Amino acid sequence: MSGSIPFYQKHHRHYDRGYRSKETESKLSQYQSSSRYAAGSSRYVAGSSRYAAGGSSSATSFSRGLKVSSHSGLETSRLSPVPKRAKPSYLAVDKENQIIGYVVPIFRGSQEFATGLSDTEEARVRDTAAYMARRDLFTSGVEMERSELVSRREAMRETAERISLSKRIHEHEEHFKRMNEDSLMHTPEFVIKPRSHTVWEKQCVRLHCTVSGWPDPRVVWYKNNVAIDPLSSPGKYKLESRYSVHSLEINKCDFDDTAQYRVSAMNSKGELSAFASVVVKRFKGEVDENLPSPRQGPVSEYGINFKTHIVDKFGVSFGREGETMSLGCTVIIYPALHRYQPEIEWYRNDVLLSPSKWNHMHWSGDRATLTLTHLNKEDEGLYTLRVTTKSGYETYSAYIFVRDADAEVEGAPGAPLDVRCLDANKDYIIVTWKQPAVDGGNSILGYFVDRCEVGTNHWIQCNDTPVKFARFPVTGLVEGRSYTFRVRAVNKNGMSHPSRVSEPVAAMDPADRARMRGTSAPWTGQIIVTEEEPAEGIVPGRPLDLQVTEATKNYVVLSWKPPGEKGLEGVMYYVEKCVSGTDSWQRVNTEIPVKSPRFALFDLAEGKSYSYRVRCCNSAGVGEPSDPTEATTVGDKLDIPSAPSKVVPTRNTDTSVVVSWEASQDAKELVGYYIESSIVGSNVWEPCNNKPVKATRFICHGLMTGEKYVFRVRAVNAAGLSQFSPESEPVEVKAAIASPTPPYGITVLECVRDSMVLAWKQPTFIGGADITGYFVDYREVIDGVAGKWHEANIKAVSDRAYRVSDLKENRKYQFQVRAANMAGVGIPSLPSDTFLCEEWTIAVPGPPYDLQIREVRSDSLVLLWKPPVYHGRDPVNGFYIDIKEAEAPHEAWRGINTKAEEKTYIKIKTLKEAESYVFRVRAQNKAGVGKTSDVTDPVSAVTKPGTKEILVDVDDDGIISLNFECSDMTADSKFVWSKNYEEMTDPSRMTVETKGNKSKAVFNTPGEEDIGIYSCLVTHTDGASSSYTLSEEELKRLLEISHDHKFPIIPLKSELAVELLEKGRVRFWLQAEKISANGKVDYVFNDNALSQGEKYKMNFDKNTGVIEMTMESLTPADEGTFTFQLQDGKATNQSSLVLIGDVFKELQKESEFQRKEWFRKQGPHFIEYLGYEVTPECCVVLKCKVGNMKKDTSALWYKDGREIKKDENLGFTEGVLKLEIAQISKKDSGVYEVVLKDDRGKDTSTLNLTDQGFKDLMNEVFSFIANSSTPLKITSTDQGIRLYTFVSYYNDLLQVTWHYKDSAIAFSDRIKSGVVGEQIWLQITEPTEKDMGKYAIEFNDGKGGLRRTVELSGQAFDDAFAEFQRLKAAAIAERSRARVAGGLPDVVTIQEGKALNLTCNISGDPVPEVTWLKNDREITSDDHCILKFASGKFASFTITAVNTSDSGKYSILVKNKYGTESGDFTVSVFIPDEAGGKKK
Fold first, then answer.
1. pLDDT digits (tens, 9 = 90+) for 546-588
2. 1200 to each of 497, 650, 1184, 1197, 1247, how far by Cα in Å?
3. What are the CA-CA distances from residue 831 to residues 202, 231, 254, 736, 742 (Å)?
4. 174-214: per-residue pLDDT in tens?
5. Contact 1332/1350 with Cβ under 8 angstroms?
6. CB 834 within 8 A of CB 863
7. Whether 471 contacts 417, CB under 8 Å
């Protein structure tokens, strides 16, 4: 595209080679028609500057040492009237041939123009210059100026004509190029690029650019590489595009608008971008943040985003002059790349610091350190660490204060500071400094300035008398040498320490210094005017603009401008002075002329008025004097500023106060202000800053918490320090109250058709005062475009949850929340996520909310929460708590409790020390577990230094209290006590007393109502809290201690007790824990004192503390209360024992019994009285153990008064008498007695085995029987199913109960029970499926009994039932088969001729068939033998008249389907006549 731009715009960097021909033509036509175009060199230079800047203002600067080279885009030799002469360029380049500006020559008459003038014009100019040189030195220069003006106009006219001709040729070439259609299309180009801006918050900024290109490019604006959408933030951004001028307007800039903005232009030929940065400044402390903004966005080199965290920061620090101070911060960059190093920069008052002998900087890879090797007051200020990565930057700032070093002489002032050298010339250097804040208690008389030549250590005092003005011109310097300077202050007490030395400065002409700096200057966008070689033989003209720049009583400084004719040879100056009212001018520098256009005059008479003038001179002569100055009186021209006013201190932190004031009125050259503070009533003032601050607001640090201070301010300029302002009102040093920061973490707890319940987290900073409430705003979001904000609540809500009503169903909304305290309403939170307003219908609960963490220790913490607003279909019945490490992935969540927690708090233990954790809570109901709560902020399991726990105390008055101490309290901190983590609302139970950093909660009337967990939280601290669990056991212990403290007593190891001794003697005794030798005891019975005597024997062993009293026996008169009263100094105690009623009677009876027992045991006696035991074989053995027996001692057994004779059941072995009852029965019930008797005495033992005694015995027998029972078994019979068990021994008195399905069985004909031998059975006749189930037999032994069970179901029932069916069928078959029931004899003997009739019973079903046999042969019925079978039951056999042939074996055979049976009989017929009646 280089061929499409004008030749005089080629390689022009300021316009990025994109300045179009139309704009060029327009500008050039304006200058050709302007009268200022030919008005002179100064105007032409100014116009050229505006021309180069495209119409924008730009200051003109001068530079020397620039090389001029030709960069013309066209061959112009054929256009010049003088083709042989080379045409100079208008471009200035550096050593690397980089264009840095224009060079416009100053037109002089004697100069050879490099613009192509004709020979005639050059000759005319030379003649004019020669004529001017021959003029007399003091002749008026009017004619010379007129001639120069004519020459200039003619030369400029020729130049303009030449430029116009070149332009027409260039446009002609461009016309032919436009005829080609392809040349019309070109990539976008920025004619004017957007420029960077720095603005204050709440201001508007406008970025604009001009873009060319064909087709018309499409322009898009980006912020940090993210396209800007004006609809996403209505009113924030405004985009305009008119006539190729595109603009982005940012309304009401805030701190987040600090970014890099990019404008991208794109068409079909390509894309081009331009960048501009916007920095939004925010007021912070005394110094405004004005640091450049680096590039934002992802790191293209690595493809990742860096996250920078500055930890382990340095705080506000105090040092003293001469000390060394190190400032350091640990920098954590994630992810950590081994070879990637961030850019570490340190700033002081927003000025970048460079390494020097005063500042050492170190970066260890993770820690940035700045070491101030030798502190001076110049080092005081706001220090900022800036860590820059490719993704952005992080900063941290803190103020550093430097106090004066101890003075060598008491009362001497502090050292001056900030010594600098201004306006260095060959003749002198002006040294400036700032006055110290400390004057040592006496006014500073002045200052001494010392100089030292670089390379030596020899300091020379520059002024003989102290100067009060904080600026001094040092003379007597050697040209070309470098010097350093220092300043000392002095008062009547002595001299201060010297200030820090200044930077070295050379005594030389400023022009020479500029040439020594080199020619490599960056492009500034300005036109640079260069001097040309001086002319010879010309006397210089008058100096211009002579004025008095400084006037003090010690010196006067003059300054002027060189004469208008530049390029003269070796111009120097003479200075002349004249006392006002006279015409006598006296030359001041008579010997050596001044080479610099500044001069300092000393030794003037103070109070006199002088006028001054200056002459120029060179080798050609001395010129005319300048116009004289106005009369100037010798004295301080700069006045000391007036005192500031209206000093207002404001609370800031617990160690600092913000002080603001009204500036000094009409103060000139103000350096700054010093602030002093004093504790009220002390009248001792201390400086708050040792380096002047220019702002009218300053934060005074290092104050004592809780003290009241007053402040005063004074202004300072070079003339001195003002008077002090009036003292401020007293202010107490404690944390300031500010509006809270925005809440965050907005979530939805419940949603119905027209309302939503929101929850949010408390602001991270509450502003030093309790939050009084919250305000909620909402706005509707339609298609991604947010609407206007609307207030949801007019009155502040105290809870961190609120229901927003009057919403529209199925609409999307965003919310923001603002917190308020007594200082006001804070700024709103960031807009929440977009939530859809639709009714929740889920069965499980919503999320819990308002999670709070307290009592953080190295291994535990307490988590609190509030139950969900949305309960689901059923009420919430518990909570589950989840935990994970803060840096762990989402999969690392794990549960803390396996069983739902019913309370809304839990103490989480077994944490890992120094590990950071996050928590969440889920609620459950019958439907299941609901949504998780919002995750808590990470919390590190660390016990903070100085952490205290709640301590329980019981004072001397017995008052029980809980005590908590906090060492990190602020002025607004409060102790908040709660029970079971709920605020205590019953003041009658507990009284809270707070004093300083300690709080005491006193139990008014301790009781069971006070059992619980007590916690104490200290507000406005970093979570200082603790808890104490008061359990029932602990309360009991505390009450005992309280009673002991209220009533001091002698502690007792044992209370008064009574015991029986041998022979039934009675002993009363107690034992004290500790009692001195002075202790005494009073023995009291029924309020009557007892004394040692025959009845009472008393003893007091003070070594063991045992006190006792014995009595031989008790009588009815001894019934009453026995008391031992102890006293040991002030401590007392008593113990009583009441022996009345049954207690006394029992004791008396026991005493008598013991007495009788003693006598009983003198003869044969029972050691163990008669008792019984049951053996495993269920035998009962009655036995007793006897003692003191001898041979003639008799032992007799009795039952119911009758002696039991000795048999094998009686025994006596090893002192034990036994009587065995093998099978006990009811007849064994009775009263058994054993009598021991001999000559020494008689003893009797009785055992009652009747009624209950016998019942108890039998129950024990039954228990043995039950334990011997076998498991229930199942068997089958032809009648049904039988359940049975066997016992080792069965007793008729044994009670058993059969159960079916845990219910006692009611016996019937179908279900029966019985006993066969040792078998106990239950018979179920004709069982059915209804009889399936669990059966049990229960043995009753009078105690718990024993139960045996069996399950008659399933396969067991099927098998038993099948067996029953089989047996039943067999029984039926047996019962129904044919059989001869009876009636037939075995043998029948009958007389011949008689009739034989036999009948037998026949049974069987079906009716059997009957067959008669004789001698195994079937016979049939006939007249002789009649066979009958009647009714199916009776079969008859009849022989009408028997004969001998009827003798034989007869059989009856019956048969049916179930079987066959026969009956046999023998018939024997005898004849009566035969002897013996033998049978035939």
1. 888 888 877 888 888 888 775 566 788 889 999 888 888 888 8
2. 128, 110, 18, 10, 10
3. 20, 16, 16, 28, 11
4. 666 555 555 567 889 998 899 888 888 888 899 989 998 88
5. no
6. no
7. no
